[in-house]
Amino acid sequence: MLEFLKLPLGFNLILTVLVLFNVVSQTIALIMSCYRWEKNKKTIRKTENIFELFLLLIILIYSFVHGHLVMARANTIFIPIKYEFIRMVTVFLLIAIAIYISINKKRPWPLLSVLPAVVLLPYMEIFSGELYPWLVVFSLIFFFCRSIYISIMRYNEIHNGLSSLAVKNAMDTLHSGILFCEQDGHILLINKSMQNLMTSLTGKVQRDGLMFYDLLQSQSITLENIENVDGIACVAPDGRAWLFSKRMLKIQHKSYIMISTSDITEQWELTEELKYHNEELNQRSDELKEMLANLHELSYKKEIEIARMRAHDILGNRLSLILRSFHSSDIPDNEMLISITEGLFDEMKVNTRQTISKNELASLCETFLSIGVKINIDGDLPENNRISKLFIGIIREAITNAVRHGFATEINVELQYNEDSYFLTVTDNGHKTTKKIKERGGISGMKSRVAEQNGELNISTLPSFTISAKVPKRSDYV
Asked: What CATH number should be reported for the domain whose range is 166-263?
């Protein structure tokens, strides 16, 4: 230590200030490290705090040695320093702690921090000679820079790191509820939203997460109208709907259970509204089916009544001729009676079947018009009764599908023919769809009946829903 006495007084003053700065900066670094340890209690971090404490002891021993030298310089009497044992024990303990931290963190930086502390060993005074004061200065500068770096790093860890309290506060700000429990149901962590839901749904805060989930099943509501959901849905007393889901988490070879909730009130209200409209639509559909089922019978009865009236008119006309001959005192002979009755049955049979088809189509238009659906007919039905009945069936099925599935309000029916074939086209202004049409009962039946007449039936969805049929005239003779 005598080398310090040979240096100028100004050097000793600078050394004094440097020692003071080191004590203050290392104390701050120790405080920041201990505060971080309180936030996150881990063994390795506790050891790091002890390491910072020993570094502070090293600097304090530097300060004691330096103070002893300053007093000796002022009194011009040098008294041998008696801190050799403390200096050696402190340095060796610091080295042991540094080795432990380096092994656990797999980083060599703690060992590098020990190298400047080795300067405090008494043997370094002998080995370094006149360079010893400069080694002490270098060590103090290193410790000062290191303490500033450690303080900044600890500050960032405190403000950017996550503590258990910070995690709990963050969870409490969530609108959705969340709960973590062990496999036996013991709750480890729960936020305020989940606690409030527990109280409102079960009457109290549950201590067993699995029991709470089982209780929810008794209050669950069906989710058949909501797609892509997996869990239990419950409606709270305030009218809001919540979806509870449970899943297993594996953390560090240990399994935990997480129960979470999400607010599905909006989806649930839309589902209830959709359910109501579906029920109303099904009711209207049943009414429409019943009406269509009775349509053919009503049309048939109406045509019977028309045929009866036609027979009445024709027979009445012929009978009036016979009565007139009696009134004129002319007794009708055999030839007159034959002329009056000739062609009677042919006249009554003319266009009867065709008239039935035409009237059935008219009745169809009238029936749907009564429920707000306008049907525009362009063209005439084929003269062949079989083809006419076939087209009537296609028109009826197309109109029914357009109203039930496409919610159409206007339907256009176009009937054409040429030398070879009859053509039928049905279009509507219903909702457009890009989905593939599934050929079930109605459509499949139409195609089958058209195929029986050697025809073809096509369906297209763009630009509007269209059903087109083509039946060859040669099918008249099939």
From this structure: 3.30.450.20
